[in-house]
Structure prediction request, 75 residues.
Amino acid sequence: MSMKQELVAEILALPVEDRVRLVEAIWDSISAVPEALPLTEWQKEELDRRLDDLEKNPDAGSTLEEVFARIRRAK
Prediction:
């Protein structure tokens, strides 16, 4: 087994809670350098469309609190 395979096996053996924390740490390290992940043309167009929608109707969305409340009600 290679070192990478051993590392993956060790990670997969971790409790779910620890794996989630690891994913969060990995994501934080990736998001710290957004230029390292260039967007596709489709993603750029979608982001532009969403920004345009927001600028045309800034009150159309939901607040974070409203989203969390809907999630909690759905449980």
Notes: Residues 30 and 36 are 8 Å apart (CA to CA). The chain has four helices and no strands. The chain has a mean pLDDT of 93. The helical segments are 3-13, 16-31, 41-56, 64-74.
